[in-house]
């Protein structure tokens, strides 16, 4: 399922909802960003966050987004396989 993550960035980050963490009950979210490497190219960074669903009302407009948990267990991985293994560990305990 697609969702939005609110971080310190000026815009919401599109991400995937992967499940609920076994300990703490926070939602496990993942997304891929592109980062520059030292050779002038780019690499994909696979990020995994835990967050809480928030509802926001501004006037008549309603939106839902996720905020990182306090002491967020955000991690970044160089490969999708490593990120998926960490996601499985969070969900299954």
From TrEMBL:
This is Uncharacterized protein. It comes from Paracidovorax citrulli (Acidovorax citrulli).
């Amino acid at each position: 399922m697609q969702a939005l993550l609110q971080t310190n960035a000026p815009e919401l980050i599109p991400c995937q909802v992967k499940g609920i963490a076994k300990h703490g009950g926070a939602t496990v979210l993942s997304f891929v960003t592109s980062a520059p490497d030292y050779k002038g190219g780019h690499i994909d960074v696979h990020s995994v966050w835990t967050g809480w669903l928030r509802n926001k009302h501004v006037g008549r407009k309603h939106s839902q987004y996720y905020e990182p948990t306090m002491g967020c267990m955000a991690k970044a991985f160089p490969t999708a396989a490593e990120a998926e293994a960490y996601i499985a560990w969070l969900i299954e305990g």
